[in-house]
Write a structure and sequence with these properties.
Structural class: mainly beta
Shape: globular
Strand content: over 45%
Number of helices: 0
Length: 250
Amino acid sequence: MRPIMAVIAIALLLSGCLTAREPAPAQSIRVSDGNGAVSLNLCFFTDAPGTPFSVQVHRVSDDGSRIVRDLTVAPEIRTEFDSRNFEFYESGKPCRTWRFQAPPGRYAVGSVGWRSTVSYMYMSHGRVTKIQPPDRTNYITSLLRQREYIAKHTPIFEIRKGEVTRLGSMTFAQRTGRIERPVENNTGTNNDSSTDIFLTLRNVIEYRAPAPDLSANDPHITGNVTGANNQTLETLVGRDIKLGPGPVEL
């Protein structure tokens, strides 16, 4: 096994001109009578302009088996966050609080996704060897079974009338890994079973439960609000949500 590949190419997947920016205004909502509200912090592990990620929420059917697809009964609840629209920094990470309201009931986080609007730059020995245009595919990772049915890993939470449900935070992060490949000679065969090690990078979503000492009042959620509650998306605790298209070789 070779300890490291001969040429290391570094892909700057989250590239861009990073300059000091002012926070964007907070999203405010006024909760209607009969509804409850939800707040979820969305963060990036670093400034990543041009790489937005999305979260979609669905109402769960009365029997708890699937999501409600009828938009006249349960309108679409979805957001997309780009770090250029950050509201605040948390431990150095640009974040924004997603606030929305909906009728009381059980809801599921049905999918998360991401897309890129920036180019990929590959480097070798300090020189740029390739610049690849952005892949504008919207990569969606479903947290449902067959994109409709509630599964064991589907995150579920409850919206309560007149209350703010605080779900914690989701952070767009990256994980490095390594793969081994046989070293081929000039005939396309591998005679000595030697391998090269290649580095990989994968985009993931990390989840963190809401802090128990959060302020009881969010000044950006007004109207029909009489209290707040913390709920943990239990099926996401301690695991990453792996995003497509899979590990990218560096």
